[in-house]
Amino acid sequence: MPRYLLLILLAVASSACNESGDFVPTAPGGPVIPSIGGTYASTTMWHFELTTESGVVTFICAGTLTIGTQVGATFSGTYEVRDSSCGVFGGTVISGTFAEGGAITFGLTLFDQNLLW
Fold first, then answer.
1. SS3 of residue 12 by DSSP
2. 25-47: per-residue pLDDT in tens?
3. Alpha carbons within 13 A on the beta-carbon side of 81
4. Which neighbouring-strand residues pair with 38?
5. Distance CA 51, CA 45 (A)
6. Bridge partners of residue 75, in order along the sequence
């Protein structure tokens, strides 16, 4: 009796493996993260808000943002503000992240302006 059971199991297993449909592999799913490296510059590149007791003061400043390194969804680089209204300063871009929805976030550190120019 065990032989018949074994033969039945083999017949069922072999029919399950002999599917007539073709298998077509697909690329892995998930978000596609574009390369955002490069230098971005504009006369309205930076938007700063200073909150005081009397209200919010807004500064729109000229400058650049350079994304020099990108690994997957994270990046780093440098920035510069060079504007007669805002001053001249720059630093590094840290903890840059490109999220699935397209939002880009990053932190800034400040260099000593005397070292830059």
1. helix
2. 776 666 678 889 999 999 999 99
3. 23
4. 67
5. 20
6. 70, 96
For 74-83, the pLDDT digits (tens) are: 999 999 999 9
Rounded CA separation 74/33 (Å) = 10
User: What residue type is assigned to position 27 of the chain?
Assistant: A
Q: What tokens appear for 4 in the block?
A: 């018949």
Q: The tokens 């005397």 sit on which residue?
A: 114
Contact by Cβ (8 Å): 37, 75? yes
Q: CA 56, CA 54: separation in Å to the nearest integer?
A: 7
Predicted model pTM: 0.65
Q: Which residue has the tokens 């309205």?
A: 44
Residues 6+ apart with CB under 8 A from 13: none
- Among 77, 112, 70, 113, smallest CA distance to 92 is for 77
Our CA angle for 50, 52, 56, nearest 5°, is 55
Q: What are phi and psi of 29, to 5 degrees?
A: -80, 180
Q: How far apart are CA 85 and CA 11, in angstroms?
A: 82
